[in-house]
Design a protein that fits this description.
- With 464 residues, this protein is α/β, with parallel strands linked by helices.
- It contains 14 helices and 21 strands.
- The strands form 5 sheets. A 7-stranded mixed sheet has the order 5-4-1-6-8-7-9, sandwiched between helices. A 6-stranded mixed sheet has the order 17-16-18-19-20-21, with helices on both faces. Strands 13-12-15-14 form a 4-stranded mixed sheet, covered by helices on one side.
- The relative contact order is 0.09.
């Protein structure tokens, strides 16, 4: 039973930090992670001392916390995941509601915690299960939430029955739901829900700005592997890798090429590739398109494309934008904001709208955005930066959008072949988080394209 009865307990007092995860992806125990030279969990405890009177760490390694001046408990149902940790914390609660967070969540947000408290204060406490965010997709965020101690027995019954899913347990209980836009008003990137799952995440945390964590993509799959380090040797575990498909493009019955890319948006990819190769001048020249799965090959497809006429190499007239002037950025943004602000906003949007790289480290990401409103018009992540750009161009052609009114933001290098596709698509402004090449800069200069590289935070290199 909890330490206090419902009538005696304060409304908010206890915070629970879950520190007993298996950490299969990291290859070592995540509760030993350091951040800025200090244990991550130590930073969390220090912050919570200003918000809660009582801090409980649920762990299978209590010896790590002998000198931390916190209460330490272990699971009653060991090896049963986060719900078992929450159950153990609820058993030790000194308040009616218990705040729960994982030890691998580096950005707890006091303003968000206070928002949940206010929502519960305005409700009939005995009639609600707690408070947590429910995303627009319907997915819950149960590891940055407040739980009523009255849930203790129900959790025990679920665990005894082998039902370990927090999502399922919480979904149909009377929680007060924080809307996604309410949470984004506190943190536009929802950083308080970010958790460290692998070494890519550790790099992101130590690098500063971290985009929001999305739901696990259907294009990511787990694989068994051994992580080898000098300190620990080989540790068996699990990693997530992005799926890569193969599209065999057959035009008017003639095999043309094989395109390797994320197995989605095949129509966009085919149209974009045909256009940037000079085989069509627009999507209307394609009379039919259909894709067939190649039997016996995973993620491999034949794409049959029929054109209105014979296959001809379109000799496009070279075109040039007006030569850029020093005030070109200010004029094209149609914005009272400085170019530094606008570039920073666009690159933040790129981070916010993409997630596969954070899950796998195996993709490039790009967005197109309207130059006047700066609103995103399309987004794509892919294993190949060329396929990524072709998909964006292909979708724009199918939607009859004028790409001379849009800009491109990207995570990858701007090479000659990428710049040629950009020129072909008539895109006037390009910004990248990465570098470029001398020949790509020369092409951009000749075409009057504004090229920005190393766009990170409030700085960038204006190349042309």
């Amino acid at each position: 039973m909890p330490c206090h009865t419902i009538n005696e307990a304060p409304m908010f007092s206890t915070a629970v930090i879950l520190a007993g995860g298996a950490s299969r992806r990291m290859g070592f125990d995540k509760q030993t992670l350091s951040f800025d030279g200090r244990p991550l969990i130590e930073r969390t405890v220090e912050l919570f001392r200003e918000l809660f009177d009582d801090i409980v760490i649920v762990t299978d390694r209590p010896q790590l916390y002998r000198d931390k001046k916190v209460r330490v408990v272990s699971d009653v149902f060991p090896g049963c995941g986060p719900m078992a940790g929450i159950h153990a914390g609820l058993l030790q609660a000194k308040s009616l509601f218990v705040y729960v967070i994982g030890c691998d969540m580096p950005y707890p947000e006091p303003n968000y915690i206070n928002l949940m408290k206010r929502k519960l204060e305005s409700a009939a406490a005995n009639s609600v299960a707690g408070c947590m965010m429910r995303r627009d997709t319907g997915c819950l965020e149960p590891l940055n939430a407040l739980y009523n101690v009255a849930l203790t027995d129900a959790m025990a019954r679920s665990l005894e029955n082998g039902e370990r899913s927090l999502q399922s347990f919480c979904r149909n209980r009377p929680f007060i739901w924080v809307k996604e836009d309410e949470a984004r008003a506190i943190s536009s990137e929802l950083r308080m829900f970010y958790n460290i799952n692998d070494f890519v995440d550790v790099i992101d945390v130590r690098g500063g700005a971290v985009p929001s964590k999305s739901l696990r993509s259907e294009y990511v799959q787990p694989i068994s592997m051994a992580r080898v380090t000098e300190a620990a040797g080989a540790v068996n575990g699990e990693d997530y890798v992005v799926r890569e498909g193969c599209l065999s493009l057959i035009v008017n019955g003639v095999p043309m090429t094989e395109l390797h890319a994320l197995p989605d948006r095949w129509h966009d990819l085919a149209i974009g590739w045909l256009y940037t190769q000079g085989l069509i001048e627009g999507a209307s020249e394609v009379s039919s398109f259909h894709v067939e799965l190649i039997e016996g090959r995973a993620d491999a497809f034949d794409a049959h494309v029929e054109l209105n006429g014979p296959i001809l190499l379109v000799q496009k007239e070279p075109f040039y934008f007006p030569l850029p002037r020093k005030d070109k950025l200010d004029r094209e943004w149609h914005s009272p904001l400085s170019p530094l602000d606008v570039v920073g906003d666009i690159m933040s949007l790129l981070d916010e709208k993409t997630s596969l790289f954070r899950e796998t480290g195996g993709t490039h990401s790009m967005i197109l955005f309207d130059l006047e409103s700066r609103e995103m018009t399309d987004v794509c992540e892919d294993t190949s930066r060329h396929a990524c750009l072709d998909k964006l161009i292909g979708r724009a052609l199918l939607e009859r959008r004028d790409l001379s009114r849009e800009g491109l933001a990207m995570s990858c290098r701007v090479t000659t072949t990428i710049m040629r596709k950009i020129i072909c698509a008539n895109i006037p402004i390009v910004m990248s988080r990465s570098a470029t090449t001398a020949s790509a800069v020369q092409l951009a200069c000749e075409a009057g394209i504004t090229l920005i590289c190393f766009a990170r935070g409030r700085r960038y290199n204006l190349m042309t």
